[in-house]
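Appendix C reproduces, verbatim, an entry submitted by the partner laboratory led by Prof. M.T., so that reviewers can inspect both the input and the predicted structure.
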Amino acid sequence: MLSLRRGRWVLLPAALFISTAFSQDKLQLCVSCHGPGGNSVSALIPSIAGQPKLFMENQLVLFREGIRKSPVMTPLMAGVSDKEIVALSEHFSKQPAKVVSSGPADPSLMRKGAQLAKKLRCGVCHLSDFSGQKQMPRLAGQREDYLGSEMLAYRASQRPDTTMTAALYGVKDDEIKALAHFLSRSAPR
């Protein structure tokens, strides 16, 4: 009986290695699009570093279940287990987020964006420093092109989120541009 127990314990490191190797493959796949440490360097690809863990878990489940549609993410998440989703979310939520702006700040857009963020009450859900919380994403330091694209999609009801659709109702294109400019250059914490 003693030799049988030793045999079981011998298999444990192998199982852990296989699990870790699979996780490393998944991490590398994420980084290949979302950038080093989850800080995007590619147009229209969001940074996932420093995003709230619950937000990322929710989004990955929505992709996996086909509720949130993406020609890239939906097939990548097919068959990914809850345990893997939690592990990926945990990892990227702990990565330091960096500002990934595409150029210097425009003072007039920064002023207009800050005024709009206050007027639209973005800080109520996304926190006053726009770092996000629970199921609300971090906006601070996110890619400007991505923020603008997503806000336009919410405004046009192309993303299923009644709160964001209502928040952006009547917001003009130039205002979305200013808001995206401001948020993308706000320092993430």
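The chain has two domains: 2-93, 107-184. Additional entries are available on request from the coordinating office.
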